[in-house]
Design goal:
The structure holds three protein chains of three kinds.
Chain A: E1 4-13, E2 16-26, E3 31-35, H1 42-50, E4 57-62, E5 65-66, H2 72-78, E6 80-82, H3 95-109, H4 116-127, H5 142-154, E7 160-164, H6 172-187, E8 191-195, H7 199-205, E9 208-213, E10 216-221, H8 223-228, H9 230-237, H10 240-243
Parallel strand pairs in A: 3-8, 3-9, 6-7, 7-8
Antiparallel strand pairs in A: 1-2, 1-4, 4-5, 9-10
Chain B: H1 2-32, H2 39-56, H3 61-85, H4 93-115, E1 130-133, E2 136-139, H5 140-162, H6 164-174, H7 176-181, H8 186-208, H9 216-232, H10 238-258, H11 264-284, H12 305-323, H13 328-353, H14 361-374, H15 381-403, H16 408-427, E3 438-440, E4 445-446, E5 449-450, H17 454-477, H18 479-489, H19 491-496, H20 501-527, E6 529-531, H21 537-550, H22 555-573, H23 579-596, H24 602-615
Antiparallel strand pairs in B: 1-2, 3-6, 4-5
Chain C: E1 9-18, E2 21-31, E3 36-40, H1 47-55, E4 62-67, E5 70-71, H2 77-82, E6 85-88, H3 100-105, H4 115-125, H5 127-131, H6 142-155, E7 160-164, H7 172-186, E8 191-196, H8 199-205, E9 208-213, E10 216-221, H9 223-235
Parallel strand pairs in C: 3-8, 3-9, 6-7, 7-8
Antiparallel strand pairs in C: 1-2, 1-4, 4-5, 9-10
Helix pairs in contact in C: 4-6, 6-7, 8-9
The chains are: A alpha/beta, B mainly alpha, C alpha/beta.
Amino acid sequence: MSLLDIGGVSVQFGGVAALTDVDLTVDEGTVTGLIGPNGAGKTTLFNVICGLQAPVEGVVRFDGRDITPLKPYQRARLGIARTFQRLEVFGSMTVRDNIRVSAEILKDWQRGGPDPRAVADDIMARLGLFPFAAERADEIPTGHARLVELGRALAVQPKVLLLDEPSSGLDEFETDDLANVIRGLAREGLGVLLVEHDVEFVVGVCAKIHVLDFGRILAVGTPREIQRSAAVQAAYLGPRKPARR
Amino acid sequence: MQTFFVYLIIGVAISAVYAISATGLVVTYVTSGIFNFAHGAIGMFLAFVYWELRVNRGWPTPVALAVTLLVIAPALGAFLDIVVMRPLEGTSVATKLVVTLALLLAFQGGAIAIWGIELRTLPGLFGDRSYSILGLNVTWDQTTTILAAVAVAFGFRALFRHTRLGVAMRAVVDNRELCSVKGLNPNVVTATSWAIGASLAGLAAILIAPGLNLEVNTLSILVVSAYAAAVVGRLQNLPQTFAGALLLGISQSFVVAYLPVENAFVANLRPALPFVLLFIALLARREIRLPERVKTHTEPEPPPARMTWALGGIAVVVAILVSLPLTSYQLLIGSEGLVFAALTISLVLLTGLSGQISLMQLSFAGLGAVILAKLPAGVPWVISLGIAALVTGVIGALIALPALRLRGLYLALLTLAFALLMDNLVFGNRRVLGGGTTLFVARPSLFGLHFQSERSLFILLAVVAVIYANVFLSIRRSRFGRMLAAMRDAPNACQTLGMNITAAKLKVFGLSALLAGAAGAFLGGLQARVGQLDFLWFRSLSVFLVATVFGITSISGAFLGAVFFVVLPEILSRGGDPTRVLWLQPLLIALLAVATARRPEGISGQIRRVLRPWLNKMPDGWAHEPQLMREVSIAG
Amino acid sequence: MPVDGTPLLELRGVKAAYEKVEVLHGIDIVVPGGALVAILGPNGAGKSTTLRVMSGLMKPTAGQVLLEGFDVTGTSAEQLAETGVCLIPEGRGIFPNLTVRENVLMDTYTGHRHARDLEEIAFERFPVLRERSDQLAGTLSGGEQQMLALSRALSTDPALILLDEVSMGLAPMLVAELFSVVRELTTTGVTIVAVEQFADVVLEFADSVVVMAHGGVRLAGTPRKVARELTAAYLGGSKR
């Protein structure tokens, strides 16, 4: 049984289909990729999973339990955490306090958690955020702000982590570091769902990749299978045939 | 049946005025993204201009009307857009809100400054002339009003569908940037829409003023009906706005026609109807907009509790020493300042820390005072205080229930509607006031001490203010305080981390109302009598504006603001001209609010920055640099 | 077509930032008159920001923008539009709540043609728009919306066309159709800068290609030269 199981999810905005009959699973201890062109519906799917967007149809199951009627904070307390593509850092706080307050939110609903300050230090060390610790979160480069969001999500000790374009804004070396962090998280047992544009990055860390196009799942497979799929190439890279007339 | 038609015509004529005003509001809102709280006040001002030309200078009606509505109004509207509103581009909803609220005060002050406070009447366009149709007497003014609304309705339809300007206005609404790209300066379009909006505000006010007194407040508040109608049309749909206006105008007219006027409740219901409709319309709408992201101001970590309590103790000692040479009148002013400092701290908690706008803080204070006064005299004062604070807190949380889904502008409107509702239903209600116009409130007596003298009251209130400051600081130091700040910065992120923001908002609304209610109880005790004038909606507005001017994120801002709020009228009324306060105070507050709108840390933050070199010698926690910020997110 | 060596458009050391966060770290791009220059690169590379700077929507924090040798740094988008710069922005440059006809009317703020002539040109090239002329533009299909946006490049005789991801979210067939319009345009001597995700399509037409990443120019040259290295950039080194 998968940790996170999305079945037949459809979403419409004003009559326009944003997602159509989407199935997707995320397993414990693995990194699952979700790729697709801009506007394919990836962020909408994230919103459905964490409860910020109600689907017209379909169910979201977590640990075998139907969580579709649950509110966002209730889902978070079950162990679903996420980052945002459109950044949602606590802008007026320092990077350290961003992670600290997140650990405090955990303490608010889970008795006797670890010391929030210690959690903040641990996570900053792990993500290489110490150089920014005392800076306002809305004044650091986007790439690092994404890491702050990742750190904040980790501070609530999730079982499933949804990452929305975590590498955009990072340079090549930082991206490599991030890949290592994500692999490490999976080794610790987390199920990770990763939305990314950087295909090299996705191929490098994911065991399984879903391709979303026009709100539908176009293909599911291992990185190798996805790279070979003609349908995926057409969706992602553009039409080769018409251009090569 | 006769009654029915007579009041139907009256109702339709009132609706027509609401619709005209609301159309102006909607047109400026959609093209500029700024909800103009000063819309009614602009109309009021233009009605005075028309009076000046028509009555005072004796110009012929058509000339006076044309000059007012086709020359002065458009010029005023365009001027406001270009000089006041344009610099606000890219700022938060909250900043724009503060500025338009300040404009409201400015126009009120301006009108009093120019025309004074005596009551005037404005003649109708056609005097009292009327004609008879089907046995009904209809005035020419009513006919003109209804025809004007019909003309506005069809005129705008034609404008938007068939003219280059109308299409450009709709295009600006759709995508401002694309207009620039296509070579059309969207600012020109926005200025035009402000010009049109001001004309419509003026037309509405001129049409309705003959039926009322030409008076600053009445005409400014009338616009709430237009707000209600506009919200029915979701601030964008003109036909729905017209429908809202009709519903409101006709129901108001029928309330007068068919419900017994002797009943105190009903007598207050008619003026309250617009607020009730506004309430319902606001609750019925669904918030779909993403939370805006603006830069928020960071306050430095507060110093440790031991230190702030110690400083508070020192402050009380200083207060005792200061009180010795003061006269009892000066002590009363000082006491009032301390109460307002406490009240403002309740606003700092709600708005500065948690990002929830409230234009009803003084209404909570009023509730606290009224509840305290209504409790039996035998109940010990301190118990009464506790009950008044708790009940106000519960009411605050209940008000928060509908407000939970609202943010920014809509929250501001809802709280304003609540303040106006309280003005009408509670503070202006003779039954509540026990038949008189004011209510007696007992002076505080706590733990066997009776605070009858001005000096003892002053010292008591100094202690109260110190307690308020320290309560707020301990909230800020707490986990709950940091979570509130996090909610202000990024509510969605909080939810996805497991924070129940609904519960948090309820708590903070309740807590803030409780603090405001207790402050109100002390205010009542201080003044010994409270009445409608103490808690009027525009005083709530002034409290909010003064708090933002001096820094709505900090304790020092609250204290400075409170001093300003009570000391300014004293200074202004010196020299024997009592009306000077009435116009100069709102003008000064408005000027300061506009000047500091972009500085969320407020004047107190600026002062602290200047003083930083000296503060650096102070112990840890006082030396942090309040960073230069553009914005405060009090819109959530 | 200027042949005296002055490029039509040139960016010199342009830096740009949103708030305090710099997204362009000093880029140099030269666009010769009459050429089609393609800008490629992954998401977040700064491509759209580059176009925003070129069109005047965004003021650079450092560096210069030269149009036909004149410094136009800081000139407003409206003024640049009047001098013949035509940006078709990302995500459909249309007004969704205006009808097709009203959208075309909005193109009359530049150039000297009447709305009727603009309609004629647009509807002749894209007959489907004529059928839908009184429909709200937002109700058109994605491809039709993009046609409507592109029609401005045809009808207003611009000197410089800036295309931002014309192909975004469109089916491959439609992309080919739209790019045949771009190809037509190139034969008229107009200068085009096209930002694209769909590398292959643009490589067919482009005179030169600029590849951006992380807010800088990583690669520039002929399509042939760039194509060799592109596969690696997009698909993680795998050979297709």
